[in-house]
Prior knowledge:
With about 90 residues, the chain is of the alpha+beta class. It has three helices and four strands, in the order ββββααα. The protein has helices spanning about 35-45, 50-70, 75-85, and strands at about 5-10, 10-20, 25, 30. The chain has a four-stranded antiparallel sheet. β3 and β4 form a beta hairpin. α1 (about 35-45) packs across α2.
Amino acid sequence: MKTKATINVLGKEFSIHFDPITKTRYIAGIPSENIDEICDHFAEKLNVPSRKVMQAFSKVGFEALKAERENRTPRSLGEILTDELK
Length: 86
């Protein structure tokens, strides 16, 4: 399993890391269950409202369901966030 990746959102890079020992995913160094902190971090770095980042993150799950229904590969997290935050 790949444990580290980088996503590009509006020209800025953010890390995604999975710790296989604790089974915890980190987004930009923040545990993924702390979605409010993650949104605040993205908002600060991208200079957009935190509310807008939260809305973009909420679309990630819907994208996966829609892609499955349409029998296609879902867009990546970076693509979804970039499209939603333009």
